[in-house]
């Protein structure tokens, strides 16, 4: 499902500086898009509404609510995202595109039911705000959960300009509605983001329906044990849990956090730098989309075609070498571009924090967070290659290592003191990425052996 | 010291049957059933070896009371083994590499391996100190060896084809080694073909030192070569333009043929006696590596009483009906029969040609034959009767026709003789011996019909007409056939021969065992 990568690579072939900028701009927006744009959107809503005279406290509450919505929805749907991505890829490979839409609707129905039930239980039991606030929180959660699932199809689409326009329109809509409803404080801002996300959900769903006409309304083949990989579900949940667990630890350890609204707590010192740092993964994500998704997918395809269609062993090995070379180039380019980003952040980070009014006390935490999220892009690239190679056991192992080390190291930094904050996550993701390199190298070295001898 | 229970044989003779009795109907299966039923004084163990379980349905025969043991094994069934990465024992793979080197060193010449080498190879195969089936299927050492061999030897491009050929070829060996190890004690084994069953016989013979008799109906290795030459599942990579008649056979086809030749030679080297149905096949076995002094001919026989009634039912005169009894498949060359009928009908417009046999095996070929009947305008003369009771059809025939391009010892000819029907058959298998006789004494009985060349409708028709239009000759042929089948092809003689074979082989085993004990 690397359709968009191929499209964007075509711009690159025009070979001008402007074309390169444009291509990577699109790629960055699309791959990092929803994640980065939501951070930007929420920050923008916050800044604007404060400027418009809303209370800082309401804005804080709003930002924390959205953060929790994002974290919990990503963890809850991470499993289904991976499982469903694989299901769609398999069905398309088996030339059954008409089965995709009814299954997407089935998956959305299931996601809606589960997310509504869980969020309703949580909100009704722990929030004592207005009923409208409770409904808003539940609705927001259900919408983002569904949105993540629909966004799976993004990288498979070809109309990148339309996607970028849709994303921009969705967040503009969110900002506009929030501004209009800013006088209603928290409820108003939450309505704004709900409208924006719902707009995105239905706009993208519209794209998907047009691209994959269905043969029936609802199907649940994606849960069928013969067609589904439940191990992918575990990986998705574990990986997203690993990404968020250090934040949760900082939110719920009393001396690094404070209560914001209802049961939700936040860690002022920890949150701002890390979310700011996530804005700087865009260059890496852009390279990821073009190099890993498009280039690697192409080489992968050629390798397996050589195997299936009876090429010589020498040619199969040549194809594998090309595939390994592409993976290595991709990872190397991500390394370069994120390395440069880190250097620039080190140079101008202080000025940047000052410019947006964040205390320079956060600077060291910001530095280490930029390094950590850059390594996280590398880790994603490694995992992506592993998914292509169907190295499910290895990915599961890495997800577990990521989760456990993040818990242990983050806990250790809490004991070691404030100057080590952020190093827990950074160390955990770096260790996992290194381990990933070795596991991937071994997997690639044994690829022909495993391809021929261990197929079922 | 082993307990009595584990050394008491569960049967006298273990029959090793590849893809036939009791699951598949056919000439060999009927013969096996006949032998077991005809020799009730021996107890038989039936060891069936098939390809994959899905290929076989219910048993087609009811076992006689003297079948005391029955086992079913599938050579290509890997469902018990789930893929799991493993290293593989380097020493075992080195031994295996040396073994292959040895087999390559003297190809086609007698026995490439000594007895001790063979015994060691079979004992370690899938056993302690050797390569296990899982190692063969899933280990890195196994992959390294296969890919290395491909690099060094395979002259065809497709690695995936080579890989699967090697895998499919060798997987059965592990199953065979396992059968050989676990087979309950028997006094001797008797394989009814070479191939995998013959190899199993050789393994058991080497490991247990019990006699191994071999009977071949067709010649397995030759049949496999015909199959392989026609197999479409093997890709040939020469392009269509330069594709001459197997001028250069693909490497993978060649590999399969060498494999079957090799396992055939191993079976011949261990089997004694080596039985064939007729002299031609005996010579073929010797050419393929069997020692002449171990070979012998025991022909098939039929139950004469069963056909005596058919003879009584015959009408006076010669019905102008030419019958072909057999499946409607290319190897029977039905098209030559149809073309022959055109020539016959030109001279005898009252003549009819009956095709008697099942039509479900190759529907496309059946359709081609029917189309040919129509285009030759023979709709009123040539009839497709499907499967019929042979004893009831035979009295209605004036001549029995056989146009096959390959046969061993066709029982239908014997059945026709016993029912008083002269035969016109192609010069394949033992047809000439059956019609004209083999020994001088046999030949003196006269010709029971005519022998013609294959795929020659014109001379086949002339031979048929010569008999149909000449009652004196026809009567003489009928009498020759009746006498010949009575004198040489009575099933009581076949039972007698096998009774003697089993008795002698079993007695020899006892004597042999005594000798080894004395040493």
Written account of the structure:
The complex is a heterodimer of chains A (456) and B (519). With 456 residues, chain A is mostly helical. Chain A is built from 15 helices and two strands. Chain A has helices at residues 3-12, 17-51, 56-93, 100-126, 131-151, 160-180, 185-211, 230-252, 268-278, 282-308, 313-355, 363-388, 392-416, 423-445, 447-453, and strands at 258-261, 264-266. A two-stranded antiparallel ribbon of chain A has the order 1-2. In chain A, helix 3 (56-93) packs antiparallel against helix 4 and helix 5 packs parallel to helix 7 (185-211). With 519 residues, chain B is of the alpha/beta class. Chain B is 49% helix and 13% strand. Chain B contains 21 helices and 13 strands. In chain B, strands 3-2-1-4-5-6-7 form a seven-stranded parallel β-sheet. In chain B, strands 10-9-8-11-12-13 form a six-stranded parallel β-sheet, sandwiched between helices. In chain B, strand 9 (352-356), helix 14 (363-375) and strand 10 (382-386) form a beta-alpha-beta unit. In chain B, helix 9 (220-230) packs antiparallel against helix 10. The radius of gyration of chain B is 25 Å and the shape is globular. The model of chain B is unreliable at 1-5, 238-247 and 514-519 (pLDDT under 50). The chains are: A mainly alpha (456), B alpha/beta (519). Chains A and B meet through helix 11 and helix 15 of A and helix 6 and helix 7 of B.
Overview features:
heterodimer; A: 456 residues; mainly alpha; two-stranded antiparallel sheet; 2 strands; 80% helix; 2% strand; globular; B: 519 residues; alpha/beta; 7-stranded parallel sheet; 13% strand; disordered N terminus; disordered C terminus
Measured on Cα atoms, how large is the radius of gyration of chain B? 25 Å
N-C termini distance of chain B: 19 Å
Low-confidence stretches of chain B: 1-5, 238-247, 514-519
* Computed structural class of chain B: alpha/beta
**What level of helicity do the residues of chain B show?**
40-55%
Query: Which structural class do the helices and strands of chain A define?
Result: mainly alpha
Average pLDDT confidence of chain A is 87
Strand proportion of chain A, as a percent range, falls in: under 5%
Main sheet of chain B: which strands, in order across? 3-2-1-4-5-6-7
Give the spatial strand order of the biggest sheet of chain A: 1-2
Average pLDDT taken over every residue of chain B? 86
Principal-axes shape call of chain A: globular
* Rg of chain A, Cα atoms, Å: 22 Å
Strand content of chain B: 5-15%
**Total helix count of chain B?**
21
**Shape annotation of chain B:** globular
Q: What is the number of beta strands of chain B? A: 13
């Amino acid at each position: 499902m690397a359709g968009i990568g191929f499209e964007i690579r075509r711009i690159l072939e025009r070979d001008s500086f402007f074309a390169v900028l444009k291509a990577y701009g699109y790629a960055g927006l699309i791959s990092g898009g929803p994640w980065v744009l939501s951070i930007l959107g929420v920050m923008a809503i916050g800044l604007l509404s404060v400027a418009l005279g809303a209370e800082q406290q309401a804005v804080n509450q709003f930002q924390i609510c959205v953060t929790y919505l994002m974290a919990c929805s990503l963890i809850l749907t991470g499993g289904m995202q991976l499982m469903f991505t694989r299901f769609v890829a398999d069905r398309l490979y088996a030339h059954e595109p008409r089965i995709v839409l009814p299954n997407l609707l089935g998956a959305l129905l299931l996601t809606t039911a589960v997310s509504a039930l869980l969020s309703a239980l949580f909100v009704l039991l722990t929030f004592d705000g207005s009923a409208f606030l409770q409904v808003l929180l539940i609705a927001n959660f259900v919408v983002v959960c569904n949105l993540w699932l629909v966004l799976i199809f993004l990288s498979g689409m070809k109309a990148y300009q339309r996607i970028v326009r849709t994303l921009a329109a969705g967040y503009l809509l969110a900002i506009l509605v929030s501004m209009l409803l800013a006088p209603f404080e928290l409820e108003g801002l939450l309505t704004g983001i709900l409208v924006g996300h719902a707009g995105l959900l239905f706009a993208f769903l519209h794209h998907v329906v047009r691209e994959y006409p269905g043969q029936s309304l609802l199907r649940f083949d994606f849960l069928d044990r013969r067609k589904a990989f439940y191990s992918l579900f575990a990986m998705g949940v574990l990986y997203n849990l690993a990404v968020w667990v250090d934040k949760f630890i900082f939110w719920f350890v009393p001396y690094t956090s404070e209560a914001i609204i209802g049961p939700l707590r936040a860690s002022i010192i920890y949150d701002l730098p890390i979310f700011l740092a996530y804005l700087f993964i865009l260059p890496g994500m852009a390279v990821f989309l073009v190099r890993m998704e498009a280039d690697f997918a192409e080489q992968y395809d050629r390798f397996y075609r050589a195997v299936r269609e009876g090429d010589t062993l020498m040619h199969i090995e040549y194809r594998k070498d090309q595939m390994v070379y592409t993976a290595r180039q991709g990872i190397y380019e991500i390394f370069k571009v994120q390395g440069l980003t880190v250097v620039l952040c080190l140079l101008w980070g202080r000025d940047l924090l000052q410019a947006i009014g964040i205390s320079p006390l956060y600077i060291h935490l910001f530095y280490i967070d930029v390094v950590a999220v850059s390594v996280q892009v590398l880790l994603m690239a490694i995992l992506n290659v592993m998914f292509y190679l169907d190295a499910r056991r290895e990915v599961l192992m890495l997800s577990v290592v990521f989760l456990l080390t993040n818990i242990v190291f983050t806990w250790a930094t809490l004991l070691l003191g404030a100057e080590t904050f952020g190093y827990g996550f950074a160390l955990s993701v770096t260790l996992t990425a290194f381990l990933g390199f070795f596991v991937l190298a071994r997997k690639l070295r044994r690829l022909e052996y495993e391809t021929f001898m261990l197929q079922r | 010291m082993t307990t009595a229970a584990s050394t008491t044989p569960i049967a006298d003779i273990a029959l090793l049957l590849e893809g036939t009795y009791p699951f598949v109907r056919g000439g060999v299966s009927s013969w096996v059933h006949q032998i077991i039923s005809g020799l009730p004084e021996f107890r038989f163990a039936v060891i069936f070896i098939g390809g994959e379980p899905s290929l076989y349905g219910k048993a087609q025969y009811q076992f006689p009371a003297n079948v005391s043991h029955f086992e079913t094994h599938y050579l290509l069934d890997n469902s018990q083994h789930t893929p799991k990465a493993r290293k593989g024992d380097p020493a075992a793979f080195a031994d295996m590499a040396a073994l292959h080197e040895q087999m390559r060193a003297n190809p086609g010449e007698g026995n490439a391996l000594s007895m001790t080498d063979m015994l060691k190879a079979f004992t370690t195969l899938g056993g302690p100190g050797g390569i296990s089936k899982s190692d063969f299927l899933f280990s890195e050492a196994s992959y390294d060896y296969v890919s290395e061999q491909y690099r060094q030897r395979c002259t065809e491009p497709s690695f995936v084809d080579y890989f699967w050929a090697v895998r499919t070829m060798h997987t059965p060996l592990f199953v065979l080694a396992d059968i050989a190890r676990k087979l309950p004690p028997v006094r001797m084994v008797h394989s009814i073909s070479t191939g995998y069953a013959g190899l199993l016989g050789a393994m058991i013979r080497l490991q247990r030192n019990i006699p191994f008799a071999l009977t071949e109906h067709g010649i397995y290795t030759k049949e496999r070569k015909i199959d392989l030459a026609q197999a479409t599942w093997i890709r040939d990579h020469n392009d269509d333009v330069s594709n001459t008649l197997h001028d250069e056979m693909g490497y993978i086809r060649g590999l399969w043929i060498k494999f079957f030749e090799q396992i055939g030679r191993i079976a011949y080297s261990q089997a004694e006696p080596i039985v064939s149905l007729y002299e031609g096949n005996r010579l073929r076995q010797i050419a393929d590596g069997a020692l002449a002094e171990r070979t012998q001919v025991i022909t098939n026989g039929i139950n004469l009483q069963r056909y005596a009634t058919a003879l009584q039912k015959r009408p006076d005169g010669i019905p102008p009906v030419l019958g072909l009894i057999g499946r409607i498949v290319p190897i029977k060359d039905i098209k030559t029969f149809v073309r022959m009928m055109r020539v016959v009908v030109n001279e005898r417009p009252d003549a009819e040609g009956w095709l008697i046999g099942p039509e479900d095996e190759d529907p496309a070929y059946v359709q081609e034959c029917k189309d040919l009947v129509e285009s030759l305008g023979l709709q009123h003369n040539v009839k497709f009767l499907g499967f019929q009771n042979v004893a009831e059809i035979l009295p209605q025939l004036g001549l029995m026709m056989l146009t096959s391009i390959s046969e061993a010892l066709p029982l239908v000819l014997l059945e026709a003789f016993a029912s008083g029907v002269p035969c016109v058959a192609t010069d394949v298998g033992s047809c000439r011996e059956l019609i004209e006789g083999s020994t001088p004494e046999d030949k003196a009985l006269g010709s029971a019909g005519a022998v013609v060349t294959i795929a020659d409708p014109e001379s086949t028709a002339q031979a048929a007409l010569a008999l149909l239009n000449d009652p004196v000759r026809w009567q003489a042929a009928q009498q020759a056939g009746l006498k010949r089948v009575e004198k040489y092809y009575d099933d009581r003689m076949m039972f007698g021969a096998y009774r003697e074979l089993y008795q002698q082989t079993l007695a020899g085993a006892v004597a042999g065992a005594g000798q080894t004990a004395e040493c």
